[in-house]
Structures are given as C-alpha cells and as structure tokens.
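SUBJECT: A protein chain and its fold
Encoding: whole-number codes for local backbone shapes
RECORD BEGINS BELOW THIS LINE
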Amino acid sequence: MVKSKVINESTYISELAIHGMQEKKGNDLVRLDLRNINSSVADYFVICHADSATQVKAIANSVEEEIYKAVQQDPWRKEGLEYGEWILLDYIDVVIHIFRTDKREFYGVEDLWGDAEIKSYKSA
C-alpha cells in the first residue's frame, strides 16, 4: 500500500505562489520553511526579485491570480504596490515578498531567518 502525500493549505499556497513567480520569470526563488521556528510569524516566506518595478508588479499580479484561481483566496493584506520596490502579499500563514533586485540585497530577508529551512526553485 502506497501512502499518499498529504499537503496542508499553507504548503499548497506557497507552491502556488512559486508557480506564479515562475510564470513571470522571477529571479532566485526561495521558500523559507518557518514552521519549526518558535518566534515565526508565518509557516512560509516565499521570496523572489526582478530587475524592474514593472516586473515586480507583474509577478505580484501573477501570484495573486494563481492563488485565487486555486483556492479563491485574496491576500489578507498587500503592501508596496504603489512603487513596486518591495511588494508584500500576506496570506497569513504564507507571506510573499517580491523585491526589486537592489532592495532584496539591501534588506536581506533570508538572512534574518537563518534557522529556516530554505528551498530554492528555478525560474520557468
């Protein structure tokens, strides 16, 4: 008998976000698994960057569309859409960060969560 892999909602939403990022050619996609960190604010952070504000916004729109198509869920909160330097989409258990390249390097979000399990993904 083969056990089926059970996937929880936050894992599924994080995978949908990754797909949305890949659709718009996000760079250096990573998923930080924060579930084993006591002080974490979410289950996952999903992070990528792009070279222009236009592409950052396109990636954010793609992520929102992918998640809404699959689970009919809008982000609880959205930040940064006006300037497109760092867009944050908050799905409560999954927080998506889409940076312009220079802002990602400056803020170093991955470094702040050094205890997280990090998985990298290829752009599509």
In short: The domain at 9-115 is CATH 3.30.460.10 (Beta Polymerase; domain 2). Residues 1-6 have pLDDT under 50 and may be disordered. The first strand starts at residue 27 and ends at 33. The chain has one domain: 9-115.
